[in-house]
Design goal:
The chain has 241 residues and is an alpha/beta fold. It contains nine helices and eight strands. Helix 5 links the parallel strand 5 and strand 6 (150-158). It is globular.
Length: 241
């Protein structure tokens, strides 16, 4: 669910006129390129990697650097180094937002990002089921301890099948913003498999409309940070859950 939200959120922000980068920080299980319909990067320039581009979004992932069936069995220091390289050894250019898709849990990737990047905030993605909300809560508390602002909570896969309300309750309990619900839609899964995200393939669907509204809400939440971060060229946004 997090990767789906990251991809569609990044595209929605780009469609609002922003310059957006998307970093696949799930080093051991990268899938953003498949969801965006790209399988390779341009050649490097000036000894730096050049991000691929799709739907107006620049993206980088370890998936571009390994074979599709190649497993990565890396320890903490190697993960730290890989994430740092994807941040600093890439010719991102001028960005308004950098959306960072994180792996599940509260491990090395989360700690590394908080150490090497001045994060503007974290988005907490959950599902209506209580077990998913419990996982999201751990992510929320992790970033609170790392002094990363929580931009808000998003409930994914909302509707009759899985229920509703867990995301809004989580936001209320921890006094943070509830940014909206994304309804369950089979076209989200189909879009992820085909490389045509729902905000592109089915822009008038209820799910796509919800994602666009959430993107505007996210932009509003970080607008003050944009004005205040004079020294930074972009606003990094973590997507956790």
């Amino acid at each position: 669910g997090k990767s789906t939200v990251s991809v569609n959120l990044a595209i929605a922000l780009a469609k609002e006129g922003a310059s957006v980068g998307l970093l696949d920080a799930d080093i051991l299980g990268p899938n953003i390129p498949m969801m965006m319909g790209v399988d390779k990067m341009p050649p490097p320039q000036n000894r730096k990697m050049v991000p691929a581009e799709a739907y107006g979004v620049k993206l980088i992932s370890t998936a571009f650097l390994i074979k599709p069936d190649q497993p990565l069995i890396w320890r903490g220091p190697m993960l730290h180094s890989a994430i740092q390289q994807l941040l600093t050894d890439v010719e991102w250019g001028q960005l308004d937002y950098l959306v960072v898709d994180l792996p599940p849990g509260t491990g090395d990737a989360q700690l590394t990002l908080a150490q090497v990047l001045p994060l503007s905030g974290a988005l907490v993605i959950t599902q209506p089921m209580q077990v998913a909300a419990s996982d999201a809560l751990r992510g929320l508390k992790t970033f609170e301890k790392l002094d990363v602002p929580i931009l808000g909570v998003i409930e994914n896969m909302s509707g009759e099948f899985f229920g509703t309300g867990a995301g809004e309750k989580l936001a209320k309990d921890y006094n943070t913003e509830f940014l909206g619900s994304i309804p369950l839609d089979a076209n989200i899964r189909k879009g992820g498999d085909s490389g045509q995200p729902i905000v592109v393939a089915h822009p008038e669907s209820e799910a796509a409309k919800a994602i666009r509204e959430i993107a505007r809400a996210v932009a509003g939440r970080v607008s003050v940070a944009t004005l205040q971060s004079q020294a930074n060229s972009y606003i990094p946004i973590d997507v956790i859950g």
